[in-house]
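<instruction>
Derive structure tokens from the sequence

<record> Sequence and structure tokens follow
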Amino acid sequence: MQCPFCKAPDTRVVDSRLAEDGTQVRRRRECEKCGARFTTFERALLPMPNILKRSGDAAAFSEEKLRQGMKIALYKRAVTAEQIEHAMDRIKRKLRACGDRDVPSRELGEWVMDELRELDHVGYVRFASIYRSFEDVNAFRDEIEKLQSRTSSEAQQAQLSLLDDAEPSA
């Protein structure tokens, strides 16, 4: 690798370590000519599928558009940038794992809503209102009721599993 300081063509690797949960390799390098040290990161370059729009047109997946959409939905909510990045990583993993060259935007939107539902209910409803084109207050109410019933049934399932695991007392 070329030295970024003196542009010499030869550098040597001084140290290599895994980074980013094993998805990257961090390398410390030293220039043979000027002795300067610098860090590089190596990551597998995996192609992302195209996104099929509702119109039928295919568009390249845009990580920035995904990030911006999630940030807008979560504006002024108690969700950290790290939580957003982890959610985006899970969505990108699903995109790569599906193995298709083209993924319908509807499917991507559902994955985003699943992640937002787990992160923040208000952000989820904000995103859903635009994604599903809510026309009136009743559409909001219906979505909130679905969210509440799902949340209460999940809590009930967790409680039931705790009770089922407990041994009967004598």
Observations:
- Residues 11-43 form one domain.
- The beta strands are 11-19, 24-31, 37-43, 50-52, 58-60, 102-104.
- The longest strand covers residues 11-19.
- The chain has a mean pLDDT of 86.
